[in-house]
Each structure stands twice: as structure tokens, then as C-alpha cells.
Specification:
Helices cover 32% and strands 22% of the residues. With 604 residues, it is α+β, with helices and mostly antiparallel strands. Helix 4 (102-112) packs across helix 5, helix 11 (324-333) crosses helix 14 and helix 13 packs across helix 15 (437-444). The radius of gyration is 34 Å and the shape is elongated.
């Protein structure tokens, strides 16, 4: 038995040695005889395939849908040209750049606006693809078409000008309605169809509310094949992989005018507005042409604790005297006054601690005159005739105290498509019981519990322009496939109140009074504007951290004879006694609108 076992072990060793010898002969045959033969179905020899270790890729397009303005200009998802650097076929070419290859590299540095030393330092020994960064270091550098052509003309190994889908333009803006992206986590990341190593998801604004439409079906990437040393495989080309779906990413057309939006943001910056909002609505449709929030935010540097990402155009604040439009409407609709009724203002109302802004009083004046000069005494008197229910009903009928933004049920696969999901409803009364006179008086002049959003305020003007018919402000108008073919039109709609509407006659009277505000009242400084304007000013008293502050408002429309736009300006939390920046900015905005409207005629 012992000898039998020894013979078995010897036989096994002999067999193992024979197998090893066969394997060594096979490897030698492959390396010496077959190494230069091409691998079937591939463009490389067997020796080259042996060197291939992995692929190096860079994402050029996440596949996320595009957000566009009303004319198709990009708001999020703009395609730019950028310079892409890939590992070279042989890193020894880096040394060659110091000799015969130096001139093209110096020319490339000039095109990119950097020094030759900086360029060679970053690209000499690349192991991973590099999209040349913009000065901020966060996004790839955008090349002009001419610069991209120069990069291609230079023909440097491993350097290409490629299209890149840049999500945002960079820098600060007042487009908080766009929102921003953040890294997806948990189930959201696992469900992401993009295939990105770090999938992103919409976290606020349209990026969040339209996430199901924007998500896309996969990313596009540029791929380089490299060997074990990190060099690109000799003779290999940069390849591109994408989802190959002709319908995606989707294009989502908003109602925003990008040029107007930029002009308004610039105006607010020059005016030194630190906190507030501006809303411009198309007077006919009620569509949002521009909506800016301050302070400005950068969607690539969002700091939630700072609050810059908050869209103040959708947040409710104390409105002050612009709410007198509601009080006047309620009194006229109830038949409790007439435009020619006379009142007397002595400066002090005599109760509720109320006084007029004009300390010596306005004396005898009609209701129409009281509206023009924003007399508190006149509107306190009206408030004491009204019930709280009447005042609240008028506010609701005019689109205040409730959400008015456009929405649609069972649309584009969504149970409720609501782009402006962050809109606040605002308040009129926190409670109507008991129906206290002092509470009504303070509410009637836009103080106490009443709060209004700048969007609602601009829409209130549109409502008056349409005889009391409330429209739902729209920011999304069409969704199209990547080819441009329409997937779904999203028409505008009304936003009526359950309690009904004000009459066309009352709306007409209020429009006439808003014109008097400019011709002989608190908006007299607007008489020098390029268009004839109408509106209503407001200054609300509030407190911030115990300190007295004011909210300044001006809302209105223009031109008076043929209204094109309705605008609301809210300058929030300024020091009492500050110049009325909202009125001045309102006039400047309409001067910009006038200039933009005349541009086509000027070009013709």
C-alpha cells in the first residue's frame, strides 16, 4: 500500500509538470508567433490587447433635460465647446513638447488664455481625461466656435474640442425659480437612469418640480482606452458612448424672456437692493416674463443656511398700501361708497393708534383722491363699514390669500404638475372671530395679519386689466422631444375664486385710480417714464429681530392705453425713512421694457 501511494504521487507530479510545460510552450507561441496578429472583431493585435487594462472616460452630457426660455435660449443645459485632454499614446511625447512639439502647445495655451507652463504642468502626465476648467475651477471653460476651430486645427495628440452640456452659466443670478441640483442618495440614486457615478437630482425650483421630465435616460461620455502604464493605446481613437435615444433629453420651454430677466437682475444690482423680488407678467396672458429674487444665488454654490436660494417672489410679506386696492374693491362692490364721496383727514384717525403718513393731514378729499395719495384715514373709514368677511372675499376674488400659480392634473404622467410648488398662499386674517374693528382697519391698509407674494401682487394687476378675471401665472408652456417635436403644449388657464369675482366696472374704476397715482399722487415721479404708467405704492411697517423695518412696494402696468406688462416690485426690510426704491425701480423696469419692445423696429 505504501509503495502504491508513492507511485500515485510520482505520477501526479509528472502530469502536473507536463501541463505546465504545455502552458509555457503555448504562451511562448502566443508571444513570439501570434503577437502581431489582429484579434478577430477588434482593431488591435494580440500584444496590444494584452496591454489594455481599462478605459478612462469623461461625461460630456448627463442626459438631463434642457430648460429653455420662451424663444429657445438655454436657461439650464446649454451646450458649449470645451477643450478635452486625454492620456497620450506615449507619455514620452510630453518631452517632445519641449522640442519640435512646443509651438503647438504654446499656441494652445494662448487659445485657452493660460501660460504655457500652466498648460504643460496640468497635462504632461495625464492618467485621467481632463476638461480644461474655467477660471472658477468648477465648470469646463467655454470656448467660442473660433477657439474650438483653432484647437482642432492644432491637431495635438490627445487634445480635442468637444461639445459639453453645461448645466448653469455660472455666477450669481436672481433665477431661484430654476432651483439647483444636489447629489442623489439612497433609493433616488439607485433608481437614477443616468448611469453617472454621482447622479444628481433636482433639489429646488423647476429642477425639483419637473424632475420626472428632466431626469433623462442616460449619459453621453468620451472614452479612451489605456494600457497598464496609463498611456492611451497606440492608434486608438477617442470613442463616444450615449443612450442613442432620439427623443431624449426633453426640451422644456418656459415663458421666461432670458434677455429681460438679465436686464432686471442688472437693474436690481445697480439699485443696491439687498432683499426683495421683481415679477414681470405678460398683461394679456398672465405668463411670467421675468421673475427675480434678491439676494442673488449661485446654483453651483448653494448654502441653504444663507437663504439666498429662497425665491422671495413666491414668499408672502406684509404689503402695506398696495392692499388698499382690495379695500376699495370691497367697498365699491358692496355699495358702501362712491368715487366722489368726500372724507376729511386731519392726520390722526383718532383711534386704534392709526395716523396718516401726512402728519398735518390731507384735509377734504374724495375717495379717488384718497386712493391717489394713499390716505390711511379714508381707508380706515371704509374698513369700519365693511365686515371682515367682505374684505376677505374681495381679496380672494382678486387672487390674494390663495395659491394662484398654474397647475394641471394628470399631465405628462404626473398626478399634479405644479411647476411653482414653492408658492405661498399668504393670509388676509388669521381668524375672523371676533370681527374686531381695529383688526379690520389695520388689515385694510395692508398691515396686521395680511401678507402677499410679489407674484400675487403682479397677478392682481393682470386681474384688474381683465375686468376682474383671475389668470393663473404660467412659467412652463411646452415640452418637446430632443428633435423639437412637441410632446405636450401646456395652455394657460384661469384661477377663479369660489366666492366669485369683482365686476368689470369696479376693475375699470381701480385702473383709472391707479393712473391718478402717477399723475397726481404717490407715484408722481414716474411721469418722466418712456411709457405712460399706472400703479399703486405701498410702505409696510414690520420688524426684523426686534428692529423696525419697512417693506416698500410698487405695482402697476404700462403703457396705459395698450397695457403690455404688469409689474410688481418689493424691496424688503429696509430702514424706516429710506427713499422709496421700489417706485424708482418700477420706472426703470418699464424703461427697459420700452427699449426691448422697440428693438425689432429699430433693427428694421
Amino acid at each position: 500500500m505504501h509503495k502504491l501511494g508513492r507511485r500515485r504521487m510520482t505520477g501526479g507530479l509528472i502530469l502536473l509538470c507536463a501541463l505546465l510545460a504545455i502552458l509555457m510552450l503555448r504562451l511562448a507561441y502566443v508571444q513570439l508567433v501570434l503577437k502581431d496578429r489582429e484579434v478577430p472583431g477588434r482593431d488591435y493585435t494580440l500584444a496590444q490587447m494584452a496591454e489594455i487594462q481599462s478605459e478612462r472616460e469623461t461625461v460630456l452630457d448627463s442626459g438631463r433635460g434642457r430648460l429653455l426660455d420662451r424663444s429657445g435660449a438655454p436657461l439650464a443645459g446649454e451646450t458649449i465647446w470645451t477643450a478635452a485632454f486625454f492620456p497620450r499614446e506615449d507619455q514620452r511625447t510630453a518631452a517632445a513638447a519641449q522640442g519640435a512639439g512646443e509651438a503647438p502647445m504654446r499656441e494652445l495655451a494662448r487659445v485657452l488664455g493660460v501660460t504655457y507652463g500652466e498648460l504643460t504642468l496640468k497635462t504632461a502626465h495625464l492618467k485621467e481625461p481632463l476638461l480644461w476648467p474655467a477660471p472658477d475651477g468648477r465648470t469646463p471653460l467655454a470656448l467660442t466656435p473660433q477657439q474650438a476651430a483653432e484647437v482642432r486645427r492644432l491637431g495635438i495628440d490627445g487634445v480635442q474640442a468637444l461639445p459639453f452640456a453645461r448645466r448653469y452659466e455660472g455666477g450669481a443670478s436672481g433665477r431661484q425659480w430654476l432651483g439647483y441640483l444636489s447629489e442623489a442618495t439612497g433609493d433616488t440614486a439607485r433608481r437614477s437612469p443616468t448611469g453617472l457615478r454621482v447622479p444628481l437630482t433636482g433639489t429646488d425650483g423647476l429642477e425639483k418640480t419637473l424632475e420626472p421630465l428632466l431626469q433623462g435616460v442616460g449619459h453621453t461620455e468620451a472614452v479612451a482606452q489605456v494600457d497598464a502604464r496609463g498611456n492611451r493605446l497606440k492608434g486608438s481613437e477617442i470613442k463616444f458612448r450615449g443612450p442613442g435615444n432620439p427623443y431624449y433629453p426633453l426640451k422644456l420651454y418656459t415663458t421666461i424672456d432670458k434677455k429681460l430677466q438679465a436686464e432686471i437682475e442688472a437693474l436690481a444690482g445697480k439699485a443696491g437692493i439687498k432683499e426683495g423680488a421683481i415679477v414681470v407678467l405678460d398683461a394679456e396672458s398672465g405668463d411670467i416674463a421675468a421673475m427675480a429674487s434678491l439676494p442673488l444665488y449661485n446654483p453651483e454654490e448653494v448654502a441653504p443656511e444663507g437663504g439666498q436660494w429662497n425665491n422671495r417672489a413666491l414668499q408672502a410679506n406684509i404689503p402695506g398700501s398696495i392692499f388698499k386696492i382690495v379695500t376699495a374693491a370691497a367697498a365699491l362692490e358692496a355699495g358702501l361708497t362712491s368715487p366722489d364721496e368726500h372724507f376729511f383727514c386731519a392726520g390722526e384717525y383718532g383711534k386704534y393708534g392709526l395716523s396718516c403718513a401726512k402728519k398735518e393731514g390731507h384735509g377734504s378729499l374724495t375717495l379717488a383722491q384718497g386712493f391717489a395719495v394713499s390716505c390711511n384715514t379714508v381707508f380706515a373709514t371704509l374698513a369700519e363699514r365693511l365686515s371682515g368677511a367682505q374684505l376677505e372675499a374681495a381679496a380672494l376674488a382678486l387672487g390674494l390669500g390663495r395659491e394662484v400659480g398654474w397647475q394641471a392634473k394628470n399631465t405628462l404622467g404626473q398626478p399634479l404638475l405644479r411647476p411653482l410648488a414653492g408658492e405661498q398662499a399668504g393670509t388676509i386674517f388669521r381668524t375672523l372671530l371676533p370681527d374686531d374693528g381695529g383688526k379690520r382697519v389695520q388689515t385694510a391698509i395692508g398691515q396686521r395679519d395680511v401678507t402677499v407674494t410679489p407674484l400675487q401682487a403682479a397677478n392682481l394687476v393682470v386681474t384688474l386689466l381683465h375686468g376682474g378675471e383671475v389668470r393663473a401665472p404660467r412659467i412652463l408652456r411646452r415640452v418637446a422631444f430632443a428633435s423639437g417635436q412637441t410632446l405636450r403644449e401646456l395652455p394657460g388657464h384661469l384661477a377663479p375664486a369660489a366666492a366669485g369675482r369683482i365686476s368689470p366696472a369696479t376693475a375699470k374704476t381701480l385702473r383709472q385710480w391707479m393712473r391718478r397715482v402717477v399723475t397726481e399722487g404717490t407715484g408722481a415721479k414716474l411721469q418722466g417714464a418712456r411709457w405712460s404708467l399706472a400703479g399703486k405704492s405701498g410702505t409696510a411697517q414690520t420688524k426684523v429681530n426686534g428692529a423696525a423695518r419697512n417693506n416698500q412696494w410698487f405695482i402697476g402696468y404700462g403703457p396705459v392705453d395698450h397695457p403690455r406688462y404688469a409689474v410688481s416690485v418689493a424691496v424688503l426690510n429696509v430702514a424706516p425713512g429710506s427713499p422709496h426704491a421700489a417706485t424708482k425701480l418700477f420706472g426703470q423696469i418699464f424703461d427697459v421694457l420700452s427699449s426691448l419692445e422697440s428693438e425689432p423696429a429699430a433693427k428694421a
